[in-house]
Specification:
By secondary structure, the chain is mainly β. The chain has no helices and ten strands. A four-stranded antiparallel β-sheet has the order 1-2-3-4, with no helix packed on it. It has a four-stranded antiparallel β-sheet with strand order 5-6-7-8, with no helix packed on it. Strands 9-10 form a two-stranded antiparallel sheet.
Length: about 130
Protein backbone atom coordinates (compact mmCIF):
# COMPACT_ATOMS: atom_id res chain seq x y z
CA UNK A 1 0.00 0.00 0.00
CA UNK A 2 0.87 3.62 -0.32
CA UNK A 3 2.23 5.75 2.49
CA UNK A 4 0.94 9.30 2.82
CA UNK A 5 0.81 12.07 5.39
CA UNK A 6 -2.49 12.22 7.29
CA UNK A 7 -1.63 14.50 10.20
CA UNK A 8 1.36 16.49 11.38
CA UNK A 9 2.55 17.53 14.84
CA UNK A 10 5.65 19.02 16.41
CA UNK A 11 7.44 17.95 19.55
CA UNK A 12 9.24 20.28 21.93
CA UNK A 13 11.88 17.54 22.29
CA UNK A 14 13.81 15.57 19.69
CA UNK A 15 12.56 12.03 19.09
CA UNK A 16 15.04 9.26 19.91
CA UNK A 17 12.89 6.23 18.96
CA UNK A 18 9.39 5.45 17.69
CA UNK A 19 7.00 2.47 17.46
CA UNK A 20 3.57 1.95 15.91
CA UNK A 21 3.11 -1.80 16.41
CA UNK A 22 -0.55 -2.78 16.94
CA UNK A 23 -1.58 -4.29 20.27
CA UNK A 24 -3.66 -7.47 20.40
CA UNK A 25 -3.08 -11.15 19.77
CA UNK A 26 -2.49 -12.52 16.29
CA UNK A 27 -4.71 -11.17 13.53
CA UNK A 28 -7.04 -9.26 15.88
CA UNK A 29 -5.49 -5.94 14.84
CA UNK A 30 -3.89 -5.08 11.55
CA UNK A 31 -3.31 -1.40 12.25
CA UNK A 32 -2.25 0.49 15.32
CA UNK A 33 -4.40 2.98 17.20
CA UNK A 34 -1.37 4.49 18.99
CA UNK A 35 2.22 5.56 18.45
CA UNK A 36 4.87 5.83 21.18
CA UNK A 37 7.90 8.09 20.96
CA UNK A 38 10.95 8.00 23.21
CA UNK A 39 12.25 11.55 23.63
CA UNK A 40 15.64 13.09 24.37
CA UNK A 41 14.29 14.56 27.62
CA UNK A 42 14.19 10.97 28.94
CA UNK A 43 10.44 10.56 28.61
CA UNK A 44 7.87 8.64 26.59
CA UNK A 45 4.81 10.12 24.92
CA UNK A 46 1.89 8.11 23.52
CA UNK A 47 -0.28 9.65 20.82
CA UNK A 48 -3.60 8.47 19.36
CA UNK A 49 -3.63 7.63 15.66
CA UNK A 50 -4.53 9.20 13.30
CA UNK A 51 -5.32 12.40 15.25
CA UNK A 52 -1.95 12.55 17.09
CA UNK A 53 -3.79 13.57 20.26
CA UNK A 54 -1.50 13.22 23.29
CA UNK A 55 -2.79 10.38 25.49
CA UNK A 56 -0.01 9.72 27.99
CA UNK A 57 3.39 11.10 28.96
CA UNK A 58 5.78 9.23 31.25
CA UNK A 59 9.04 10.69 32.56
CA UNK A 60 11.62 7.91 32.95
CA UNK A 61 14.11 9.82 35.10
CA UNK A 62 17.82 9.15 35.12
CA UNK A 63 20.48 10.35 32.70
CA UNK A 64 20.03 7.97 29.74
CA UNK A 65 17.74 8.42 26.74
CA UNK A 66 15.39 5.74 25.39
CA UNK A 67 16.89 3.90 22.41
CA UNK A 68 14.11 1.48 21.43
CA UNK A 69 10.38 1.26 22.24
CA UNK A 70 7.89 -1.49 21.47
CA UNK A 71 4.18 -2.15 21.89
CA UNK A 72 3.64 -5.91 22.29
CA UNK A 73 0.96 -8.31 23.50
CA UNK A 74 2.37 -11.31 25.40
CA UNK A 75 0.05 -14.06 26.66
CA UNK A 76 -2.96 -11.76 26.30
CA UNK A 77 -1.43 -8.83 28.24
CA UNK A 78 -0.56 -5.55 26.47
CA UNK A 79 2.88 -4.09 27.26
CA UNK A 80 4.98 -1.07 26.41
CA UNK A 81 8.70 -1.87 26.54
CA UNK A 82 11.41 0.80 26.54
CA UNK A 83 15.12 0.01 26.20
CA UNK A 84 17.58 2.64 27.41
CA UNK A 85 21.06 3.41 26.15
CA UNK A 86 22.67 1.85 29.23
CA UNK A 87 21.18 -1.65 28.85
CA UNK A 88 18.22 -1.18 31.19
CA UNK A 89 14.69 -2.09 30.13
CA UNK A 90 11.47 -0.52 31.41
CA UNK A 91 8.25 -2.50 31.07
CA UNK A 92 4.75 -1.16 31.59
CA UNK A 93 1.34 -2.75 31.31
CA UNK A 94 -0.69 -0.56 28.98
CA UNK A 95 -4.45 -0.15 28.72
CA UNK A 96 -5.01 -0.27 24.95
CA UNK A 97 -8.23 1.78 25.26
CA UNK A 98 -6.87 4.70 27.32
CA UNK A 99 -3.06 4.35 26.96
CA UNK A 100 -2.83 4.34 30.76
CA UNK A 101 0.43 2.85 32.03
CA UNK A 102 0.76 0.70 35.15
CA UNK A 103 3.06 -1.86 36.80
CA UNK A 104 6.31 -0.03 35.91
CA UNK A 105 9.37 -2.28 36.19
CA UNK A 106 13.05 -1.69 35.40
CA UNK A 107 15.58 -4.47 34.81
CA UNK A 108 19.14 -4.69 33.52
CA UNK A 109 19.68 -6.70 30.33
CA UNK A 110 23.20 -5.48 29.58
CA UNK A 111 25.42 -2.41 29.66
CA UNK A 112 25.02 -1.12 26.09
CA UNK A 113 22.08 0.22 24.04
CA UNK A 114 19.65 -2.45 22.85
CA UNK A 115 17.15 -2.84 20.04
CA UNK A 116 13.77 -4.48 20.72
CA UNK A 117 12.14 -6.61 18.01
CA UNK A 118 8.90 -8.60 18.12
CA UNK A 119 8.74 -12.01 16.46
CA UNK A 120 6.33 -14.93 16.38
CA UNK A 121 7.24 -18.57 16.94
CA UNK A 122 4.76 -21.45 17.26
CA UNK A 123 1.84 -18.95 17.21
CA UNK A 124 3.21 -17.05 20.22
CA UNK A 125 4.63 -13.52 20.30
CA UNK A 126 8.14 -13.03 21.68
CA UNK A 127 10.55 -10.12 22.06
CA UNK A 128 14.21 -10.25 21.02
CA UNK A 129 16.42 -7.73 22.85
CA UNK A 130 19.70 -7.28 20.95
CA UNK A 131 22.48 -5.87 23.13
CA UNK A 132 25.91 -6.76 24.46
CA UNK A 133 24.70 -9.86 26.31
CA UNK A 134 23.43 -12.90 24.42
Amino acid sequence: GAVGEVKRTESAQEIACLNVSPLGDGAEREESSMVVAGLWDKSLVILRLPTLEKLTAEHLGGEVIPRSVLFVTLEGVDYLLCALGDGYLFSFCIDSATAGLSDKKKISLGTQPMILSKFTSKSSAHVFAASDRP
